[in-house]
Specification:
It is a single chain. The chain is mainly α. About 80% of the residues lie in helices and about 0% in strands. It starts with a helix and ends with a helix.
């Protein structure tokens, strides 16, 4: 099917956008963001493990190098999920999702520092554009009356940095093994890492609560099905196309927050969001072109 890759990437981005809304619903029910994050990754682990077991001999990692990079990817996704939900709790879905979308800027800055990529006026212009967008979105220009707390903004940007770490680890791990192996190791690392820090008594109470269905849905939508869709879709899609389609995630998250959960954005915040999304999309398309 000609457009199968495009459709799968789009569906993954939409599902990731909806995930923030489901997490917000659970947080309003009193569940801790770290517990919500743990179940998102744990259910995701079950899904990718089943995918791995469809062809265990072929999917078994042949190179030891895959473990190092996949573990790094797992730590990155652990930070991404957790900080994203913390940002939603402290700010809103729209702000958290948009700040997380700044990940390519952090990748670009690291590339400059390490000498992997040469800087240019266009790239620095994109960085400045995103910084201006962040100031407008978070209200940092008027800190005294800003509706976004330092925790909300910091967690959102931290989610973006963590996402950049995941991308870096996943790309390098994929050079030494297939996606099923990489994602299985990454989500196993995620689950172990989160298990060390979460409120384990609250996590155990999820299994007997009336909200268990919400947690399973969160994991299926936010990690299991969506990651499988994305990995398969990216293989069939041009990088520039995937970059543009990925913008659907923060847009979906924002629409979910405004239309269903009653979140609000000022005109200046909306302009900041548009500036960030447009600049990052332009940069991603240029980088992959």
């Amino acid at each position: 099917m000609k457009y199968l890759g495009f459709i799968l990437v789009m569906l993954a981005a939409i599902l990731w956008g909806i995930t923030g809304g489901i997490a917000d619903i659970l947080m309003n029910k009193g569940w801790n963001p770290t517990v919500i994050s743990f179940y998102r990754g744990a259910v995701g682990l079950v899904c990718v493990l089943l995918w791995f077991l469809t062809r265990p001999k072929q999917n078994w990692p042949a190179s030891p190098k895959i473990y190092l990079w996949a573990i790094l990817a797992g730590l990155g996704v652990a930070g991404n999920f957790t900080l994203y939900f913390l940002s939603i709790e402290a700010a809103s879905i729209a702000i958290a999702a948009t700040l997380m979308y700044t990940a390519p800027i952090f990748v670009l800055l690291v590339s400059f520092i390490t000498g992997i990529e040469r800087s240019s006026w266009v790239k620095w212009g994109c960085i400045v554009g995103v910084l201006i967008g962040i100031v407008l979105l978070t209200g940092a220009y008027n800190a005294g009356s800003s509706s976004v707390t330092l925790l909300g903004a910091g967690a959102g940007l931290g989610a973006g940095i963590s996402y950049a770490i995941f991308i870096f680890g996943f790309k390098n791990a994929s050079l030494h093994g297939n996606p099923q192996s990489v994602l299985t190791i990454a989500f196993l690392t995620f689950s172990i890492a989160l298990l060390l820090f979460i409120d384990r008594s609250q996590a155990a109470s999820v299994l007997t609560s009336g909200d268990l269905g919400w947690f399973i849905l969160l994991g299926l939508v936010g990690a299991g099905i969506s990651f499988v869709f994305y990995v398969i879709g990216v293989r069939r899609t041009a990088p520039s196309t995937a970059s543009m389609v990925a913008m659907i995630e923060p847009v979906t998250a924002s629409l979910f927050g405004v239309a269903i959960l009653g979140d609000t954005l000022t005109f200046i915040q909306l302009m900041g969001m548009i500036l960030i999304l447009a600049t990052i999309t332009f940069l991603s398309v240029k980088q992959s072109g």
